[in-house]
C-alpha cells in the first residue's frame, strides 16, 4: 500500500480495545519514538478500536505508515491496519473534532494535542488552531 505524498494523518484500525495511553505506548514501542520528541501533534481514539494520529511532518507520517503497515496484523501488534486519514493536518483534525464531537466527553475520549512535544489543553488548542 502506498501513502499519498502530502499525508500527515493516519487512521489506525486496532485489533483490540485500547486506551489512549496504551495506544501511544504501543506506537512508541513499534516505531521507536522517544517520549521527549513526539513526532505527532494530534492523537484521538474516537472509538476503542480506532485511532487517528496527525504527525508534525510528511516524513514522520510516512515513516510511521511504513513501519506500522509492515507489522500490522502480526501477533502481539495492536494495529490490524493503517491508512491515510480523511482529514489532514492538526487544524483540519481539530476542526472536525470541534464540529462533530463534544468537548465535555470524558478525558479518555478527547483528543490529545501536543505543541512542541508538550501536551496542551484541548480548549486552548481549539481556540488557537480551529477557531470557529
What does this structure look like?
By secondary structure, this protein is an alpha+beta fold. It has one domain (9-129). The chain is 34% helix and 25% strand. The chain has four helices and six strands. The chain has helices spanning 20-31, 58-71, 90-100, 122-129, and strands at residues 9-14, 40-47, 50-55, 79-84, 112-115, 118-120. A six-stranded antiparallel beta sheet has the order 4-1-3-2-5-6, with helices on both faces. The radius of gyration is 14 Å and the shape is globular.
Give the key terms:
34% helix; six-stranded antiparallel beta sheet; 132 residues; alpha+beta; single chain; 25% strand
Mean pLDDT: 87
Count of spatially separate domains? 1
What order do the SSEs take from the amino end to the carboxyl end, as H and E? EHEEHEHEEH
Number of helices: 4
* Content of β-strand: 25-35%
**Class by alpha and beta content:** alpha+beta
Quickly describe the structure.
By secondary structure, the protein is an alpha+beta fold. Helix content is 34%, strand content 25%.
Question: Topology, please?
Answer:
Blueprint: E1 9-14, H1 20-31, E2 40-47, E3 50-55, H2 58-71, E4 79-84, H3 90-100, E5 112-115, E6 118-120, H4 122-129
Antiparallel strand pairs: 1-3, 1-4, 2-3, 2-5, 5-6
Amino acid at each position: 500500500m502506498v501513502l499519498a505524498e502530502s499525508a500527515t494523518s493516519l487512521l489506525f484500525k486496532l485489533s483490540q480495545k485500547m486506551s489512549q495511553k496504551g495506544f501511544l505506548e504501543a506506537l512508541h514501542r513499534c516505531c521507536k519514538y522517544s517520549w521527549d520528541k513526539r513526532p505527532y501533534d494530534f492523537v484521538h481514539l474516537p472509538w476503542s478500536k480506532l485511532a487517528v494520529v496527525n504527525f508534525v511532518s510528511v516524513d514522520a507520517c510516512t515513516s510511521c505508515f511504513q513501519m506500522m503497515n509492515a507489522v500490522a496484523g502480526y501477533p502481539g501488534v495492536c494495529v490490524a491496519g493503517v491508512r491515510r486519514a480523511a482529514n489532514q493536518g492538526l487544524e483540519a483534525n481539530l476542526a472536525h473534532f470541534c464540529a462533530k464531537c463534544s468537548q465535555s466527553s470524558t478525558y479518555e475520549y478527547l483528543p490529545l494535542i501536543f505543541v512542541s512535544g508538550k501536551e496542551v489543553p484541548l480548549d486552548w488548542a481549539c481556540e488557537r488552531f480551529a477557531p470557529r
